[in-house]
Amino acid sequence: MRSDQAQGLRRLLDRNGLRVVSISAGAGGTTAAIINLAGALAELGNDVLILDAYPAAQGVAAALGLKARFDFEDVIRRSRNLDEVIVRGPAGIRILPLACGARSLAHLPAPEQQRLLDRCGRPGFPVDTLLVDAAPRGADALAWPGTAVQEVIVIAGSSAAAITAAYASIKRLSNELARREFHVLVGNVASESEARTIFDNMAAVARRYLRASLHFIGHLPRDDKLQHAARLRLPVVAAFPGAAAAASFRRMAQAVADWPRTEEDGCGFDDFMRRLIHSNGPRIAAA
């Protein structure tokens, strides 16, 4: 009973500030980053839920060697509750497959929307951080970095093509969704100094042409242990705790955990879903 009461109290407290973070990359490659960030956040004691908008064969669950039996579509149709759809992964990671359900959100009549929100407001486990792994842009893709998310992390690389793709992603989100704040992770670099140089150039261009502010959240060194962990279907912090890449993801996770939470961002998973429906409904319906 004491355990149940503690969990109930924790859920109540967590509702005072749910953190919602989207990870984007102009050239793809978000799935590995979100798995490793989730593992590092869980290691810090955060209750993390990944919202996976990729098709089942390409999503987070598949990358971890797991099979998602259900999708958020089953919650919308009321054939499964939210807890039954959640996939439990290694290292404290939870995943909500969302690909099929994303296409149905815009077409729900108002009464069904409210029933869905009621069902989403009662998860059977605490959640304090939502990490959104968004599918590539398409006719039925969700505009994640709209009002539904609080923070956006954009992944850049060391090559000219990767830098250009990351900047293009920032430009699109800035122009289409009026976002003016982005966090940048620079990967595949030899040192933090190299990452800082790449970031400084991107930040100057974004400030001049987009009037957008970029914030450096960290760098990922070239580390074979990162690929080895992916082959083992584990976050690098769990597979190789002493690896350089693990240290980088721990620093990044601590930065995310230190971000302030404000009351106007909403407090519960149902609040997130409400913003998601309202911010994406008209665009998906038009498409």
CATH class: Alpha Beta
CATH architectural grouping: 3-Layer(aba) Sandwich
Count of the domains: 1
Helix content: 40-55%
Order of helices and strands: HEHEHHHEEHHEEHEHEHHHH
- Quote the beta fraction: 15-25%
Give the helix tally.
13
Give your account of this protein's structure.
- The chain has helices at residues 2-14, 30-43, 60-63, 72-76, 82-85, 99-105, 110-120, 160-177, 192-209, 224-231, 236-239, 244-258, 269-286; strands at 19-25, 48-52, 87-88, 94-97, 129-133, 151-156, 181-189, 213-221.
- The longest helix is centred in the middle third of the chain and has 18 residues, at 160-177.
- Mean pLDDT is 83; it is low at 1-15.
- An eight-stranded mixed beta sheet has the order 3-4-2-5-1-6-7-8, sandwiched between helices.
- α2 crosses α12 (244-258) and α7 runs antiparallel to α13 (269-286).
- The protein is 48% helix and 16% strand.
- The chain is of the alpha/beta class and 287 residues long.
- The protein has a single domain, classed as P-loop containing nucleotide triphosphate hydrolases (Rossmann fold, 3-Layer(aba) Sandwich), CATH 3.40.50.300.
